Amino acid sequence: MATVLVVKPKLIVFDLDYTLWPFWVDTHVNPPFRKSSSGSIVDSTGATVKCYKEVPKVLEKLKQDGYILGVASRTSEIRGAMQLIELFGWAKYFTYKEIYPGKKTTHFANFRKQSGIQYKDMLFFDDENRNIKDLKGEGVTSILVQDGVTEKVVENGLKEYAQCC
């Protein structure tokens, strides 16, 4: 029986706003965040804050499969974004976090410097075309996310990565 070699990215990076959760953390919700007595995550007004439905399962599976994960966000609400990553229980998944305003190319230059992983070995998911375009220009396989990360979106991204690299 022949073994099929599948090329896998060494680092998978996700944007946050409208990629892992359905809002902009700096304008649509009100930090600080906390767990309510019922266990749900709420903002300072008591409004419930949720991520996209399939994200926890996707992150868990990728980590189980041995992928190194990172997040890159241009938000100015750094503390709130970090708080949500902790409250959602995602900190254990992300080896690298680049969360601050500026171009995504800066975030990825830092990933490369910290990890030693080259751009061609990275896979990126984001909802904004400008970020996809910028990173494709650097050689990062970049996937435009329409309605949040799902198992299917990630599966298709991994297939696209395997075909191009």
TrEMBL record:
One of its GO terms (molecular function) is acid phosphatase activity. InterPro entries: HAD-like_sf, HAD_sf, HAD_SF_ppase_IIIC, MDP-1_euk, MDP_1_eu_arc. NCBIfam families: HAD-SF-IIIC, MDP-1. This is Magnesium-dependent phosphatase 1.
